[in-house]
Amino acid sequence: MARFDREAPNYQKDGYNDFNTFYIQAASGTKGGSSGSPVVDCQGRAVALNAGSTSSSASAFYLPLDRVVRALNLIRGCRDPFGSKPESAYIPRGTLQMTFQHKGFEETRRLGLRNETEQVVRLVSPAGETGMLVVDSLVMFAS
After folding, report:
1. R_g over Cα of the chain
2. Other C-beta atoms lying within 10 Å of the C-beta of residue 67
3. Looking at the structure, do residues 63 and 114 belong to the same domain, yes or no?
4. 108: Cβ contacts below 8 Å, ≥ 6 apart
5. Pairing assessment for the beta strands 46-53 and 38-40 based on DSSP bridges
6. Which among 99, 22, 118, 12 is positioned nearest to 62, based on CA atoms?
7. pTM (2 decimals)?
8. Do residue 86 and residue 24 come from a single domain?
9. Which one of 52, 73, 92 terminates a domain?
10. Residues 24, 3: contact at Cβ < 8 Å?
């Protein structure tokens, strides 16, 4: 694994780009057609799904399973107790109308993060956290 905080690869040719979802990046020779394949750890546990790769390098991008598990649980919640077909499931993705980038603590300090704030974030974050989310752009929708 190379990075745990990568944005999705840019899929301009298809007109679709994911945002505000951070992927695992690894140097691997993943090729087309393997999207959705599981990524397993040394103990044989599925930890991510193959999401895509870049043709200009040997980098592949993997979607961590916590996002998949969340969506699956929301879909399961739409089933009735007798197991019939689920109603249409709504998978909320947030409505902040902005995109974020993950920046390391060194970069956030250059952007003005105060030492006190960094210490609080490090204290309440999981061990090994490398940075914070920074607003990259506002998403404006015409009404």
Report:
1. 18
2. 16
3. no
4. 118, 131, 132, 134
5. antiparallel
6. 22
7. 0.54
8. yes
9. 92
10. yes
